[in-house]
């Protein structure tokens, strides 16, 4: 490495170590920029694709109260996607390119959204578990080293806490209902528990990006630390609902002060990441269709803006003359 | 940042929100819109879903000129050694009140 580059890198690391935030125009290593664009765009895609499984239930929500809440939640996810695309754009990425990469299968999104929402209880489970897991990760990211990403996370975390509460409230209502309703809640927990634990990503020993991301303080906690934290806060919430976490290996450990839990099915994890989950194909088809069918709206809005700009110019020219 | 000539994307806008009267507008983020009016409508939906604002400014991002991080020293360091610009620089006896 040439000495100038080395000095820049050292200065950059010193700023990170001193807890300084990095802002868009500051010098940063190419790899830092690339890692952030990858991570932030994946995060943005997850918000956008995440609207699909829940959108599936808006028209079938059991009451108007549940429906307005779900609508507001899905609208928030769209907003979160936009904050995040905005943060990625401060790094020089082009939103259109990022969306193309998603549609071409080059960019990833959270695998959790490749599982189907089969019953109303799934909407409860998503809010409680999926948003709960997302919040663990996002609270950590409010302290990430890149300023615009951290600021987007602060906004997102403020908004997400209602998401988790509305999900838990749905399950609470079901668990206090009839036997059939309680069974629905149990069935949803059975299907969403393990995929929710997988949301934190591969185990630390298999995570290729963790070490560098920790050094640059993009991440502040490892995948396994966050996963443990999630299990520790979520199990008592399941107990309160009176439903059972589907893990025979789950046990409170007096010594460590944490729950021990069973091994994740990593084959399933990698299968879904590679595109072979139950809904991967369906999700991408829906996204591409929405994007293509919206193309005329984007073009028409541009044409209209252009027309208005020209008219205004003409009017001003007449006034001057 | 390069703009691609083959694509007709909606331009980028910077959004500033006044959270309540008496406070300044503050930068909250950016978004894409075809024109200023749409930028305000989109900013309403994206940044004020929970009463975060009473007024919105939008500025197309390309019109913002920013100082460069390289100028940081030349712009801001000269203020470092001018302690006499702060009230605590001046020694007055405690008996003197309201000053």
Give short descriptive properties of this protein:
heterodimer, A: 321 residues, 2 strands, 69% helix, globular, B: 99 residues, 3-stranded antiparallel beta sheet, 2 helices, 21% strand, disordered N terminus
| Number of helices in the DSSP assignment of chain B | 2
- The counted number of beta strands of chain A is 2
Helix content of chain A: 55-70%
Described by strand count, sense and barrel closure, the largest sheet of chain A is: 2 strands, antiparallel
Fraction of helical residues of chain B: 10-25%
| Total helical elements of chain A | 13
**Beginning-to-end CA distance, first to last residue of chain B:** 52 Å
**Sheet bearing the most strands of chain B, described?**
3 strands, antiparallel
Multimer state: heterodimer
Strand order of the largest sheet of chain A: 1-2
Explain what you see.
The complex is a heterodimer of chains A (about 325) and B (about 100). By secondary structure, chain A is mainly α. Chain A is about 70% helix and about 0% strand. Chain A has a two-stranded antiparallel sheet. In chain A, strand 1 and strand 2 form a beta hairpin. Chain A is globular and about 80 Å long. Chain B is of the alpha+beta class. In chain B, about 15% of the residues lie in helices and about 20% in strands. Chain B has two helices and three strands; from the N terminus they run E-E-H-E-H. The radius of gyration of chain B is 21 Å and the shape is elongated. The N and C termini of chain B lie far apart (about 50 Å). Residues about 1-5 of chain B have low confidence and may be disordered. Classes of the chains: A mainly alpha (about 325), B alpha+beta (about 100). The interface between A and B is medium-sized, with 31 and 21 residues.
């Amino acid at each position: 490495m040439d000495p100038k580059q080395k000095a820049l890198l050292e200065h950059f690391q010193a700023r990170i170590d001193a807890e300084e935030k990095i802002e868009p125009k500051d010098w940063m290593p190419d790899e830092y920029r690339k890692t952030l664009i990858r991570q932030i765009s994946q995060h943005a895609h997850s918000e956008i694709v995440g609207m699909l499984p829940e959108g599936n239930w808006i028209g079938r929500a059991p009451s108007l109260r549940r429906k307005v809440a779900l609508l507001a939640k899905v609208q928030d996810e769209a907003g979160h996607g936009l904050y995040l695309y905005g943060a990625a754009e401060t790094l020089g990425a082009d939103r259109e390119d990022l969306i193309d990469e998603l549609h071409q299968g080059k960019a990833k999104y959270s695998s959790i959204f490749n599982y189907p929402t089969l019953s109303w209880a799934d909407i409860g489970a998503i809010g409680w578990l999926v948003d709960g897991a997302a919040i663990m990760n996002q609270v950590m990211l409010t302290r990430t080293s890149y300023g615009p990403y951290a600021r987007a996370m602060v906004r997102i975390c403020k908004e997400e806490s209602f998401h988790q509460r509305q999900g838990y409230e749905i399950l609470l209502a079901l668990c206090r209902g009839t036997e059939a309703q309680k069974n629905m809640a149990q069935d949803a927990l059975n299907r969403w528990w393990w995929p929710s634990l997988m949301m934190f990503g591969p185990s630390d020993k298999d995570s290729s990006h963790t070490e560098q991301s920790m050094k640059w303080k993009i991440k502040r906690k490892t995948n396994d630390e966050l996963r443990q934290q999630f299990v520790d806060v979520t199990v008592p919430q399941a107990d309160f609902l009176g439903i059972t976490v589907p893990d025979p290996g789950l046990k409170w450990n007096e010594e460590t002060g944490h729950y021990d839990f069973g091994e994740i099915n990593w084959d399933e994890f990698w299968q879904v990441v590679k595109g072979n989950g139950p809904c991967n194909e369906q999700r991408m088809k829906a996204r591409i269709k929405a994007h293509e069918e919206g193309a005329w709206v984007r073009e028409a809005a541009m044409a209209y803006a252009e027309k208005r700009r020209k008219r205004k110019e003409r009017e001003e020219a007449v006034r001057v003359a | 940042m390069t703009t691609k000539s083959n694509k007709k994307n909606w331009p980028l806008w910077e959004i500033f929100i006044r959270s309540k009267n008496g406070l300044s507008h503050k930068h909250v983020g950016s978004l894409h819109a075809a024109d200023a009016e749409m930028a305000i409508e989109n900013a309403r939906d994206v940044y004020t879903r929970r009463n975060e604002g009473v007024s919105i400014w939008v500025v197309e991002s390309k019109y913002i000129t920013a100082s460069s991080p390289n100028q940081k020293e030349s712009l801001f360091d000269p203020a470092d050694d001018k302690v006499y610009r702060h009230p605590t620089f001046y020694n007055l006896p405690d008996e003197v009140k309201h000053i």
